């Protein structure tokens, strides 16, 4: 981590003055509650940010909702698939009628726009394969939802080159994960305010509430591993063999199996998923008997996406995207795994530092 | 098609109640219909405000001022037309509608509330009706979900929640040292002038300040009219009486209420200004003991403030009364004061006889009044001022709320709901959202539900006792009913009898007239130290004993000791203390709310003044 600038109270004050002019009274009214949480400066950074969201699944709709509400400058929805009745069960942004046959991104656009008319909304009807660096370079963050693993790896590598923030996430039935790559991007770290005047008992007590002026902030860059490195840790190696149980939640293995499966179009039944899971566990030098999963439990990973799981994983992805774009708060490093089946929601930093 | 078929079969005949259609409620309703819940009823009294739109995503700008329950139901009905969703735009406290039999109609109740008294109320009704309850809350980046099943898990009231912060009356009325003191005072001031006057809301100097030993002398000065007051200038109804009357009444003179005074002056904003910020301050200055070790306040008059060109610090202050992010100059404060008093006066006079205004942070006139008054008072006491935006946070007890946290909380509620309906109590977890992952990497920290507390006055089977310290010579039965039973214990319609005599002292029957009894103190009603009161709320099906202890140090305040089950004075064992500490620690902060504890209560009481 390197330091690129220290914000003194007077700088923050000047900054606030400038921002006030930029955020309208109408915006302030709507965003009142979140400005009270993350401050005016963060809100101003959000309103100058652009996001690309690929994949309008149930999880994609959740992320789209969270980002629209936050008040970015623009959001682009991208998907090349055609909506089916199955999509309507998960994606609450699709219209109530006549959605079958619509492109998923275009079909989700109207309702997404209604969530916050102040945000510019665009759509792209291509798939990931048709797009590359030229597209990603136009955005401050690229978020891939429920996309095949191989393609996601390519996009992440390209975004790293461009220094565009990258996030990816998937939900398989009752479990899901999110991955973040905010490599070399600034985040604002709070430095504990120095204690003044503790020896001066005659000083009047002005105000014991902490205000933003009392805090000092420091911008720090954070380094993140790539998606490629994230998922290619050799857990059987000497370095990790003893740490694997501590580092990985049991839901890691079915999720990784599902991800690899998504490159081949997913699994037809619990048995084939179970086979893939077994292979994944063994590849990591683990014994299947260690896990509590029963045969029928694998139904939980087969889908369709459970709405509450989309809400939880989508909430985490949305919040991390907001942190990254507003350069505010400590970001999660670098992944989140969730399983409704065993009520687990953990952050993993992979490869282990 | 594993999960979906299983869920369909499971949820086919289940009926659930959602209490609250706000931040968590909107997310929850969406999750429920998408998960396959078929029969949903939602209750919310609130209407939609602009500041809800950043997270309550079922609402649009055109829905502002409409019923949350109605708009939210219509929105999720459209998502899944085959869902049977019904709603009540009503208060969950409405006992005629939402009694125990109403709650029994549901397989599960989910709270999405923003205030403690409503949570207490639903907790009790669910325990009485034997219906499982899922409780949830969020505050900023953190949140929590817990399942309440009678006899199996801790109920909402098994642990006592931190009491809302209060400030000593003397500090508020005589010696403010922080801006919050001035903000609290300015809200009291609003109530004194336009709203319902509560016992604790007095804004005039407090003659009984224990620090002030020259009280009698000062009172005389006040009563003999040595100080100059606005009302002397041609008005005969001032709060000065003539010398004879003053001498007779002296210290116990009842100073005419600020309300009466203002009404008689025709709500003349300039006169009110000079009384609050000049005459009363002059009077405070006569209480010399207060200023021996403090900087004395500086009185200001309307004429001085508005005539003077504003000097120092003007680069950071603004004359623009529409700028809510910057601190107003004194001149701007005075202007806002006059404008808001005029606006509120007009609105008050337009109300039907006997009705009053009620303070609400989203009421622009009321908020501007409070911001101006707080800053004027802060200036007088040499306390740095604040912007309206900042004062609104303090005055409205705003807990910031965001969409993402609410989405996560609502997701976790449904995950637990499915476990409860499947009968898989072994899988139920209490879950907290951490701001940062803990050392084990948990962003969502889960734990086994705690067992019910044996001494819980709400859910235990035998030991339902609370211990209350009051000043029996000061506290009236009415004060006990309003502040202790309703205010603290969230009892809605109490019947109270004295255990030893069986005498009924407080009745919920509207046909009973207990007013004479209620206006007397405990002591005057011959209720002594150690008395046991049997409290019964038929609506909540709640019965508990309140043991009274006399405490000379309490004035009209009280202290409740129910935490440890120990009697006052007995200290809890170390083990108990560390147990309580552990619980508090793991409970995290957000036991309170999706936000704004006071917000909807204010709305609940708001009179349609617009």
UniProtKB/TrEMBL annotation, chain A:
One of its GO terms (molecular function) is SUMO activating enzyme activity. Residues 31-337 form the THIF-type NAD/FAD binding fold domain. GO terms for cellular component: cytoplasm; SUMO activating enzyme complex. Pfam families: ThiF. Transmembrane segments: none annotated. InterPro entries: ThiF/MoeB/HesA, ThiF_NAD_FAD-bd, Ubiquitin-activating_enz. GO terms for biological process: protein sumoylation. It comes from the Eukaryota. Belongs to the ubiquitin-activating E1 family. This is THIF-type NAD/FAD binding fold domain-containing protein. The lineage of its organism: Eukaryota, Metazoa, Ecdysozoa, Nematoda, Chromadorea.
TrEMBL record, chain B:
It is found in: Nucleus. GO terms for cellular component: cytoplasm; SUMO activating enzyme complex. Residues 11-432 form the THIF-type NAD/FAD binding fold domain. Keywords: ATP-binding, Metal-binding, Nucleotide-binding, Nucleus, Transferase, Ubl conjugation pathway, Zinc. Residues 468-554 form the Ubiquitin/SUMO-activating enzyme ubiquitin-like domain. Zn(2+) binds at residues 155, 158, 456, 459. It comes from the Eukaryota. Its main location: nucleus. SUPFAM superfamilies: Activating enzymes of the ubiquitin-like proteins (SSF69572). Residues 558-610 are annotated as: Disordered. Residues 594-610 have a biased composition (Basic and acidic residues). InterPro entries: ThiF/MoeB/HesA (IPR045886), ThiF_NAD_FAD-bd (IPR000594), UAE_UbL_dom (IPR028077), Ub-E1_IAD_1 (IPR042449), Ub_act_enz_dom_a_sf (IPR023318), Uba2 (IPR030661), Ubiquitin-activating_enz (IPR035985), UBQ-activ_enz_E1_Cys_AS (IPR033127). Heterodimer. PANTHER family: SUMO-ACTIVATING ENZYME SUBUNIT 2 (PTHR10953:SF5), UBIQUITIN-ACTIVATING ENZYME E1 (PTHR10953). Belongs to the ubiquitin-activating E1 family. This is SUMO-activating enzyme subunit.
């Amino acid at each position: 981590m390197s330091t690129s600038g220290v914000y003194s109270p007077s700088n923050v004050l000047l900054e606030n003055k400038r921002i006030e002019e930029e955020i309208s009274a109408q915006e302030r009214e709507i965003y009142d509650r979140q400005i009270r949480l993350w401050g005016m400066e963060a809100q101003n950074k959000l309103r100058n940010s652009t996001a690309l969201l690929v994949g309008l699944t149930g999880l994609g709709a959740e992320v789209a909702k969270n980002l629209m509400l936050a008040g970015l400058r623009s959001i682009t929805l991208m998907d090349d698939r055609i909506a089916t009745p199955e999509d309507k069960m998960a994606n609450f942004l699709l219209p109530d009628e006549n959605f079958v046959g619509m492109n998923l991104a275009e079909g989700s656009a109207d309702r997404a726009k209604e969530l916050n008319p102040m945000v510019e909304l665009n759509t792209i009807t291509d798939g990931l394969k048709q797009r590359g660096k030229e597209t990603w370079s136009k955005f401050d963050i690229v978020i891939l939802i429920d996309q095949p693993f191989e393609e996601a790896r390519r996009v992440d590598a390209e975004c790293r080159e461009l220094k565009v923030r990258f996030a990816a996430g998937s939900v398989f039935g009752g479990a899901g994960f999110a991955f973040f790559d905010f490599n070399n991007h600034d985040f604002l770290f709070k430095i504990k305010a120095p204690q003044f005047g503790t020896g001066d008992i005659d000083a009047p007590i002005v105000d014991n509430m902490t205000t933003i002026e009392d805090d000092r902030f420091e911008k720090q860059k954070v380094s993140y591993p790539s998606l490629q490195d994230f998922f290619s840790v050799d857990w059987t190696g000497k370095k990790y063999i003893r740490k694997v149980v501590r580092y990985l939640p049991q839901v890691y293995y079915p999720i990784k199996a599902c991800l690899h499966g998504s490159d081949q179009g997913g699994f037809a039944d619990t048995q084939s998923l179970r086979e893939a899971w077994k292979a994944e566990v063994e590849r990591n030098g683990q014994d299947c008997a260690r896990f509590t999963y029963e045969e029928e439990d694998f139904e939980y990973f087969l889908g369709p996406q459970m709405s509450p799981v989309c809400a939880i994983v989508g909430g985490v992805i949305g919040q991390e995207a907001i942190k990254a774009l507003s350069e505010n708060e400590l970001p999660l490093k670098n992944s989140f795994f969730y399983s409704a089946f065993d009520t687990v929601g953990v952050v993993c930093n992979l490869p282990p530092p | 098609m594993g999960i979906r078929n299983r869920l369909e079969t499971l949820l086919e005949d289940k009926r659930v109640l959602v209490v609250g259609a706000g931040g968590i409620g909107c997310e929850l309703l969406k999750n429920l219909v998408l998960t396959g819940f078929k029969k949903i009823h939602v209750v919310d009294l609130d209407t939609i405000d602009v500041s809800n739109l950043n997270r309550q995503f079922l609402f649009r700008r055109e829905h502002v001022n409409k019923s949350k329950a109605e708009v939210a139901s219509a929105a999720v009905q459209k998502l899944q037309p085959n869902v049977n969703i019904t709603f009540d735009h009503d208060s969950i406290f409405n006992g005629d509608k939402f009694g125990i039999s109403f709650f029994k109609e549901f397989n599960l109740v989910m709270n999405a509330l923003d205030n403690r008294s409503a949570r207490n109320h639903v907790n009790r009704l669910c325990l009485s009706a034997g219906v499982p309850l899922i409780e949830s809350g969020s505050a900023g980046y953190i949140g929590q979900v817990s399942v309440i099943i009678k006899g199996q898990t801790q109920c909402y009231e098994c642990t006592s929640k931190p009491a809302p912060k209060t400030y000593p009356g003397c500090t508020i009325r005589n010696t403010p040292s922080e801006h919050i003191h001035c903000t609290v005072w300015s809200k009291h001031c609003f109530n004194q002038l336009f709203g319902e006057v509560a016992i604790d809301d007095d804004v005039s100097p407090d003659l009984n300040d224990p620090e002030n030993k020259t009280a009698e002398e000062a009172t005389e000065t006040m009563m003999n009219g040595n100080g100059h007051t606005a009302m002397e200038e041609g008005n005969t109804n001032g709060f000065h009486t003539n010398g004879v009357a003053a001498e007779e009444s002296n210290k116990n003179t009842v100073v005419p209420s600020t309300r009466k005074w203002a009404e008689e002056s025709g709500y003349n904003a300039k006169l009110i200004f000079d009384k609050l910020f000049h005459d009363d301050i002059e009077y405070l200055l006569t209480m010399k003991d207060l200023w021996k070790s403090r900087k004395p306040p500086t009185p200001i008059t309307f004429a001085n403030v508005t005539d003077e060109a504003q000097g120092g610090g003007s680069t950071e202050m603004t004359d623009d009364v529409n700028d809510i992010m910057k601190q107003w100059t004194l001149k701007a404060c005075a202007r806002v004061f006059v404008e808001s008093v005029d606006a509120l006066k007009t609105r008050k006079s337009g109300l039907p006889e006997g009705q009053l205004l009620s303070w609400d942070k989203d009421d622009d006139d009321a908020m501007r009044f409070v911001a101006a008054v707080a800053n004027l008072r802060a200036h007088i006491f040499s306390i740095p001022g604040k912007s309206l935006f900042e004062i609104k946070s303090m005055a409205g007890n705003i807990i910031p709320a965001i969409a993402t946290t609410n989405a996560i909380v609502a997701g976790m509620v449904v995950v637990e709901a499915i476990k409860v309906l499947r009968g898989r109590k072994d899988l139920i977890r209490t879950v907290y959202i951490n701001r940062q992952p803990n050392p084990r990497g948990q962003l969502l920290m889960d734990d086994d539900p705690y067992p019910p507390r044996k001494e819980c006055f709400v859910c235990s089977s035998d030991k339902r006792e609370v211990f209350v310290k009051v000043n029996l010579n000061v506290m009236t039965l009415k004060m006990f009913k309003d502040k202790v039973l309703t205010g603290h214990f969230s009892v809605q319609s109490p019947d109270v009898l004295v255990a030893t005599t069986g005498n009924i002292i407080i009745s919920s029957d509207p046909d009973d007239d207990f007013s004479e009894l209620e206006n007397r103190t405990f002591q005057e009603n011959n209720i002594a130290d150690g008395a046991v009161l049997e409290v019964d709320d038929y609506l909540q099906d709640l019965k508990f004993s309140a043991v009274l202890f006399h405490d000379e140090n309490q004035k009209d305040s009280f202290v409740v000791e129910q935490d440890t089950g120990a009697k006052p004075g007995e200290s809890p064992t170390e083990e108990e203390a560390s147990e309580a500490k552990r619980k508090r620690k793991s409970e995290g902060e957000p036991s309170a709310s999706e936000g704004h504890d006071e917000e909807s209560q204010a709305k609940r009481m708001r009179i349609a003044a617009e």
